[in-house]
Amino acid sequence: MNRKSNSFVMFLPGFPTSENDTTCLPMQQQFVRKFAEMNPEIKTIVLALQYPYRRDSYKWKGICIESFGGRNRVGIRGWINRKRIMNRLTEIHHSTPIVGMLSFWHGECARVGSEFSKMTGAPHLNWIMGQDARKENPYPRKLKLREGDLIALSDFLQDEFERNHDCRPARVITPGIDLDTISPDNNKRIIDILGVGSLISLKRFERFIQVVNEVRHSYPDIKAMIIGNGPERKKLEGLAKELDLSKHIRFTGELPYDEVIKKMFQSKLLLHPSSYEGFSGVCLEAIACGCRVVSTVSPMRNEIDGWQIASSIVEMKEACMAILQIQHIKTSLPRRFYMEETVKEIMSAFGLTPLPSASTSTTRLIEVIGN
Predict the structure, then answer these.
(1) What sign does the CA torsion over 320, 325, 327, 332 have?
(2) What is the per-residue pLDDT across 120-153, written as a single tens digit (0 to 9) for each?
(3) Rounded distance, CA 253 to CA 260, Å?
(4) CA nearest to 107, candidates 74, 60, 77
């Protein structure tokens, strides 16, 4: 039997309960799968601190997942859960020495990883994902991690974290898309404007509705769709009805990942009106599906082909109008946003190198011409 002698541990607040749970953190799912695929000689272990809401050990695509069911408890219950995790880490380290620990979000996951690293010397890096870079996050003041221990998901988050916490993450490693999870669809682009995301106030989907209302004056038969669910849904549906857009905007609720991808292949543009975004994987997925993107937040200093920034309702309207006038939409996902490139950068940060025989099947450049 080929016994793996070393392990690599990832800490996440939550992880899918099964392989059928495709909507829970899709980017992180893809990263975990691709990392394990490219590192067959290392035992990949995921510790899910808060969700699933049960203590369990199970396999996900052949990868070891251990959930601790923390449920975001604080106080003595939070301390007990953290103690359990530390004990389990000690067991793992004794049986298969840990060559690296990667924590997602600068919160409780970063706390566990940094504390165990101080105890054992096992390398730990924290990946800042989004709202954890904001000033309201108390963990940077508590943990006081060094700049070299921090990775930012985007240029925007690197600047944001430094501005709010006087500490500049040493690295920027962007998200990636696993093209193996995207199956090209040749259906016509029957959706003019698509929106995807949680229906919460931060995502500002009322602006999406306002833009559709403005564009409708020039495109009276405009068809738009919003995929997602959340506490703002009834309010948004009410606004659409008030503006007489019920026949123009369809609310689908939450859809499985492959259904979201299918809708992207059927859309001309993705409008992402969020007021704050670390680096939206949804926008990269849309580009990979041949869909133009308009968003209010620029994740990187350099422009990304097929992705336009518009800060106001007027600018969003003008950008959408310009895209809708294009007869044939053509976009391609830059190779730096392939998931295998993201994994390679994380591995390099830990001093790891992929085996020459490791599978890196994502070698094609997707180009899709819209209808």
Answers:
(1) negative
(2) 999 999 999 999 999 999 999 999 999 999 999 9
(3) 11
(4) 74
Q: Which one-letter amino acid corresponds to residue 182?
A: I
Domains of the chain and CATH, by start: 6-173 (3.40.50.2000), 180-332 (3.40.50.2000)
DSSP state of 230: S
Instruction: In whole angstroms, give the CA distance from residue 209 to residue 273.
Output: 10
Distance of CA 175 to the CA centre of its chain: 7
Paired strand residues for 171: 151
**pLDDT tens readout for residues 342-351:** 999 999 999 9
CA dist 306 and 308 (Å) reads 7
Q: Distance between CA 55 and CA 70 in Å, rounded?
A: 8
DSSP 306: T
Q: Length of the chain in residues, anyone?
A: 371
Helix (H, G, I), strand (E, B) or coil at 307: strand
For residues 118 and 101, the answer to whether their CB atoms sit within 8 Å is no
